[in-house]
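Let us walk through a complete example step by step. Step one is to write down the protein sequence. Step two is to encode the small molecule, zinc ion, as a SMILES string so that its atoms and bonds are unambiguous. Step three, shown after the inputs, is the structure prediction itself.
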Amino acid sequence: MKSFAIRSYLDAITHLNNLPISDQREWFFHPGMLFWSRAKWWADFGTRHAMHEGLDIALFRNRTGRIQWLDTSTRVPAMAKGEVINVCSDFLGRSVIIKHAQDAESRLVSVYSHIAVPSAVVPGTRVNKGDVVGQIADTTGKKSGIHCHLHVSIMEIANEITDNEISWEIMGEPDLKGVKLFNPMI
Ligand SMILES: [Zn+2]
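Step three: the predicted structure of the complex.
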């Protein structure tokens, strides 16, 4: 189980936030928002420093036919049942790491980034699918001028890496020792 069915997750975001989405439930992704892309979708639309470690969720078509951005009012649901094992900083906000399964070598986690995290969400917090783990952070004031969005990653992280060692130092390219990334779209 390395997939949490992205369609179902996008529906969870829609329902949790009562998004005024079109009947076709259309979401849009710039190529740079996709997993393992090297492209930026902000600022100069140039090249990222590293391959994209996940999926950026930000754009849907609303009922008037317009493309609409998620914003800081968007609450972020957990993809599946699990336990919060760390909360760390990322370059636009905070990231929550949830463990869903574990074997002798590694654990399967989902990561939610560039969000504001409520004080009740801490390591040890147990969550069910759909529980709120945060809210999209305001990133518009950052130097990068990057629009508000939710980054999600799905990874296996080796057990030798302790829960509180998990940060973007180890989850980010290019130094992925003990970390295996999966495409959240498949
Ligand atoms: Zn991202």
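Step four is interpretation. The domain at 1-186 is CATH 2.70.70.10 (Glucose Permease (Domain IIA)).
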